[in-house]
Amino acid sequence: MSPPIRIALIGMGKIAHDQHLPAIANDPAFELVATVSRHGGTLDALPFFDSIEALAASDVVVDAVALCTPPQVRRALAASAIDRGWHVFLEKPPAATLAEATALRTRAAAQGVSLFASWHSRHAAGVEPARAWLAERTLRDATITWAEDVRHWHPGQDWIFEPGGFGVFDPAINALSIATRIFPHPLFVESAEIEIPANRAAAIAANVLFRDEFGCAIDARFDFLQTGHQRWDIAARTDRGTMTLAEGGGTLAFDGATAAAQDDELATEYPALYRRFAELVRDGASEVDLTPLQLVADIHLKARIRIVDPFDW
Amino acid sequence: MSPPIRIALIGMGKIAHDQHLPAIANDPAFELVATVSRHGGTLDALPFFDSIEALAASDVVVDAVALCTPPQVRRALAASAIDRGWHVFLEKPPAATLAEATALRTRAAAQGVSLFASWHSRHAAGVEPARAWLAERTLRDATITWAEDVRHWHPGQDWIFEPGGFGVFDPAINALSIATRIFPHPLFVESAEIEIPANRAAAIAANVLFRDEFGCAIDARFDFLQTGHQRWDIAARTDRGTMTLAEGGGTLAFDGATAAAQDDELATEYPALYRRFAELVRDGASEVDLTPLQLVADIHLKARIRIVDPFDW
C-alpha cells in the first residue's frame, strides 16, 4: 500500500469540523498534517497556520489540501496551492464563478496536479440506485423541493448572503448536483424567479422550471425560510412507476416502497468523497464537473428578480 | 473550387437584413436557397417558409442554416437543424443559457455537423492588432465603456428585456467577446451591480469590476440609455503605452496614434464570419467558444441587483 497522502485542511468552519475531520481521520489513505484558518481554532497536537503562505514556509510536508472556506476566497487559495504542486479538494461550490472554476481546471492540468470539484450529495445512498432506475425508464415530470431553515443550518453566516455566497443556492446546488446526475438528459432553465431580501445580495428563495429536450418539466422550489419539517426531496414520475429521493438523497423509494436508506450521512458522503480524491491523486487525474454551477449561473442569467422583505438573523 | 454551401437564413429581423444577406450575397462560398420567418417577409424570387419543418418538408436542398432569431428560441431551432444533418451558424449570443449552448455543442459533435458560435465584434478591424500588441506587454488596468441608446438600436424589440433576452448584455456581450480575445489572461468578476427596470426582466445598465489573476482591474460600464455620442470603447494601460480600441473595435490607437480603422463594419465583420463558417464546414470542424456567455452568466451570478425606473419605448 502507498504511503498516506499528507493533507492540510484549509478553512476550519462548520463543514470542516462536522464532515472533513472525521472522514480524514477514518481514511487510512490520508494523514492530516496541518490546519489553516484565519480565525484560529487549533486542533490538539497538530500544526496550525493562519495562512497558506505560512503553511508553505513551514517544515510541514504537504501533498494535498482540502478547501473548506466560503466560495468567495476559494479561487485564490486553490491557485496558490496548485502552484505549489499540491493536489486540491474543493468543497462545493468549487468557486464563486464559472470563470474562476474553469481557470482552476486549466491551471491544475498545466501543473500536473489533481483537482477534485466535490459534490457530496451525489454520494448519498439513494443517488446511484435512483440514477440506474431512471436510466431504464422514460421521465414524465419531476419536482425538486429543497426547503430548509437558514437560521438553523447557517446561523450568523453572513457570507452566504454576500455576492458570491450563493444564498439559497448554497443548499440548492446540492439538489442540482443530484438532478444533473440522476436525470439522463441535460436540464434547461425555461423560467425562474429569484427572491432577494431588500437588505442582502443573494437569493433567499427561488422557483425554477426546468425542461429537458423532450419537454419534460422539472419544477423546483428552493427556500431558505422553511421552519418545522425540513425538506430535501426529488420526486419523479416515469412511464413505469414513481421515484422519491428524500432527505438529501439519503432515502429512496420506488412506488412508495423503500429501496435504499442511510443511517447517517457521516457514514457515506464524505468518506466516499475522500476515497474518490485518493483515487484521483493515485491516478494523476482530475474530476471537475461544473454542470451544477452552470445551472445556478443559468438560473441567475434568465430569472426574474423579486425583492422581498429584509432578512436578519 | 467546391460547389457553394446551400444556406437558409432563419429569423428575418434587422440583423439578417443589415448584415447576413449582404455578406452571403457577396461570398461565392455560399448560395442562399431559402429564408424562414414566422413573421413573413419574402425576398424576391427566393423560396420562403414559415417554419424549419416546412423548409425541411420542401424540395429545397439545404446544407447549412444561419440562425438570426432572438436567443430564447435559438436552441430548439438549432437542435432541429443539427438533427437534419445541417451545419449551423449561430448569431450571438449562441443560446439563452450555458446549458443550452453546451448541449448544442455535444449534439453537433454527435451528428458530425459543424457548429459555429459567431462573435462578430471579434472580427472588427482593430481587434487582432490589439490582441497582438497586448500579448507583448504587461497590462496595468483597463476600462470598457459600452453605452448606446436602446431606443435607436433596438426600437420596440421587447424580447430584449424579456428573460433570456440579455437586456444591455446583448450589446455588452460584444464588448466581452473582444475583451476575452485581446486580454491575455482570464477575467474574473470581482464585483458587479446590475440595474433592472421595475417593469422589465433584464438589465438596462451594469457596472462590473473584473480582475485578472495578477490583480489588474478591468472596469466596465454598460448602459442602454446613452443619448448623444454612442460609445463602444475599450482602453488599456500597459507597462509600455496605452491602447484605445473604439467604435466597437473598428478603430485602434496606440498612444493616441491611429493604428487601424475600418470604413464600414459591413465590409469586415460579417464577411469574415462567413469566411470562417465556410472553412469550418469544409474542414468538418466546429468553433464554440462560450467564454463571453460564461462571463455574462458570472456577472448575473455575483451581482447586486438594483431595481430602477420603469422603461418604456
Overview of this structure, please?
Two copies of one chain form a homodimer. The first copy, chain A, is of the alpha/beta class and 313 residues long. Chain A folds into two domains: 5-117, NAD(P)-binding Rossmann-like Domain (Rossmann fold), CATH 3.40.50.720; 122-262 and 297-308, Dihydrodipicolinate Reductase, domain 2 (2-Layer Sandwich), CATH 3.30.360.10. Helix content of chain A is 31%, strand content 28%. Chain A contains nine helices and 15 strands. Chain A has helices spanning 14-25, 52-57, 74-83, 98-111, 127-135, 150-153, 169-182, 269-283, 291-302, and strands spanning 5-10, 30-36, 48-49, 64-67, 87-90, 115-117, 139-147, 188-197, 205-211, 217-223, 231-238, 241-246, 251-254, 257-261, 304-308. In chain A, strands 14-13-12-11-7-10-9-8-15 form a nine-stranded mixed β-sheet. In chain A, strand 5 (87-90), helix 4 (98-111) and strand 6 form a beta-alpha-beta unit. In chain A, helix 3 (74-83) runs parallel beside helix 4 and helix 7 crosses helix 9. Chain A is globular, with a radius of gyration of 20 Å. Chains A, B: It comes from Sphingomonas suaedae. Chains A, B: InterPro entries: Gfo/Idh/MocA-like_OxRdtase_N, Gfo/Idh/MocA_oxidrdct_glycsds, NAD(P)-bd_dom_sf. Chains A, B: This is Gfo/Idh/MocA family oxidoreductase. Chains A, B: GO terms for molecular function: nucleotide binding.
